[in-house]
């Protein structure tokens, strides 16, 4: 397939090559069938009724990677500074996704969350989260140890804690599968097709090409790679972090999520207790630097090129200790040791039997964007536009919570560039 034969609109020119007459054409092509890609396709179908939409996914199912491997927590939105996109979309995203689950009878555990102070040094952190929640319009309140004992009897805190009643849990794969199963006929899901490049108005896959009029890149771990084919995101690269959870056998341990006060200078929330949609309890996640983008286990999905590129980048961050990466890496690697991992969580509770933990759950990889010019992590959502395309370069937590609201923003930002609908 050559650029000379297909115009930027994706339609054949006056004298097309006969071999290309039956090239599949679509109005919108979405790369990636995680929660962001599915939500963008859903938003496009709502706004542009009847427009042809194809979702391109390299795996054989939706939400195979981060979207299906996260905790399923719908965050309330009090962690983020008021000027951030995260603050802007988490509050409304929580409401939209909650309403979606209730409307369609999907499981949701509206258990709420408490954030506790492990020692006196963390008390001011609790107060800062309350201030952020107030600025962001989130329903949160400070409680003392006595009230905490009523809301979550097994949690412990020093002086005060924060209660978030609108934090809940869903089954992320169930949500994604439901979205995918209820698209209108104008939306197609193409599984088992990896985006490998482009010519003018044509996306190349490892199976067949497809013509498009506008492309949305929601490729998660590979969003920077896809963007590079369009000249976008050149100053960024992905640094993968592995998230591991450990299940607890006794569901009566907790009623609600219990979280520590996070280090607000990095995007990770620390080891915490999650109450799952079906009432189980687990601790996690880790944020262990991974050695390639899909480094879920020892050698699965190993990619030598990615290994050397990621290892070199992480070695540089470690040597120069950018954003305290050295300390972060050492502490996170220690969490491979089961006793240390459990100990990090135990300080949040009144009682915990270390023998009560069972197996590790399905690991996930966090696609965390790095600015290669500053060697700093990108802390907020990031979207860039290029030729006939829009690229979601950074969609880290709380991307699942924010998905419906954030997708509206992505389509809004692309709308002036979409001239054919």
Rounded to an integer in angstroms, the radius of gyration calculated over CA atoms is 22 Å
Low-confidence stretches: 1-21
Counting DSSP E segments of at least 2 residues, the number of strands comes to 23
Cα-to-Cα separation, first versus last residue = 26 Å
Helix content: 25-40%
Report the sheet-strand fraction: 15-25%
Tell me the number of helical segments per DSSP (H or I, 4 or more residues long).
Answer: 11
Could you say which overall geometry the principal axes of the C-alpha atoms support?
A: globular
Mean pLDDT: 93
Helix-and-strand structural type: alpha+beta
Biggest sheet details: 8 strands, mixed
Quick overview:
The protein has helices at 35-47, 66-69, 85-104, 123-136, 145-151, 172-181, 223-228, 304-320, 325-334, 338-346, 399-414; strands spanning 25-31, 53-56, 73-74, 108-109, 113-116, 141-144, 160-164, 168-170, 187-190, 195-199, 202-205, 210-217, 236-243, 246-248, 257-260, 272-275, 281-284, 288-289, 357-360, 364-371, 376-377, 382-386, 389-394.
SSE blueprint and pairings:
Layout lengths: L24 E7 L3 H13 L5 E4 L9 H4 L3 E2 L10 H20 L3 E2 L3 E4 L6 H14 L4 E4 H7 L8 E5 L3 E3 L1 H10 L5 E4 L4 E5 L2 E4 L4 E8 L5 H6 L7 E8 L2 E3 L8 E4 L11 E4 L5 E4 L3 E2 L14 H17 L4 H10 L3 H9 L10 E4 L3 E8 L4 E2 L4 E5 L2 E6 L4 H16 L7
Parallel strand pairs: 1-2, 1-12, 2-9, 5-15, 12-23
Antiparallel strand pairs: 3-8, 4-8, 5-7, 6-7, 10-11, 11-12, 13-18, 13-20, 14-17, 14-19, 16-17, 20-21, 22-23
